[in-house]
Amino acid sequence: HKDNPITSLSFEQVLGIYTGKIKNWKEVGGNDATIRALNRQEGRAQSELFSQFFKMKSEDFKTAGVAGDNEEGVKDVVENPNAIVYMSIGEAEIRIGQGNPVKSLLMDGIAATSRNVRNGYFPIQRPLMLVTRTLPSGLTKAFIDFALSPNATAVIRECSFVPYLD
């Protein structure tokens, strides 16, 4: 929530929050309030990426609930300034741009921005790939050319992904 004074968390702090070892915002420099950590539904891309990055198994998570989709996660954080949820940077940027009272936290001092994903600085990320069996031609090549062009940027952002180009 934008009113939560925390602006940055370390790898160890995030891990502590999601394993239940850190239960109060005061333990990470915030207000004296219970942290409401939300996990994402198992099997979804965000939960798999998060689990892999933090080397966690589903039984390691000790959270207050599960946000099945981005809408649920944002709603919970909007309604509870002590809630925290992880989601794609693209989705977070869209929600912040829409005026939702949420914010992205720095991770180990690195801003969670599309630019930092694109330049490889933000540590939690995964590439989206287009794979073909043979060298692309025809419509397949046209699609790949479009996907890598500035014309695709708006479409990619609307889908909550970080575009290859600005």
How would you sum up the major sheet? 3 strands, parallel
Q: List unreliable stretches of 5+ residues.
A: none
Beta-strand residue percentage: 5-15%
- Give the quaternary arrangement of the chains: single chain
Instruction: Describe the strand arrangement of the main beta sheet, using strand numbers.
Output: 3-2-4
Outline, from the CA principal axes? Answer: elongated
What does this protein look like?
This protein is an alpha/beta fold. Helix content is 36%, strand content 9%. It contains seven helices and five strands, in the order E-H-E-H-E-H-E-H-E-H-H-H. The chain has helices spanning 11-19, 45-54, 70-79, 89-97, 114-118, 138-147, 153-158; strands at 8-9, 36-40, 65-67, 83-85, 106-107. Strands 3-2-4 form a three-stranded parallel β-sheet, with helices on one face. Helix 2 links the parallel strand 2 and strand 3. The two termini are 27 Å apart. The mean pLDDT is 90.
List keywords for this structure.
single chain; alpha/beta; 3-stranded parallel beta sheet; two-stranded parallel ribbon; 7 helices; 5 strands
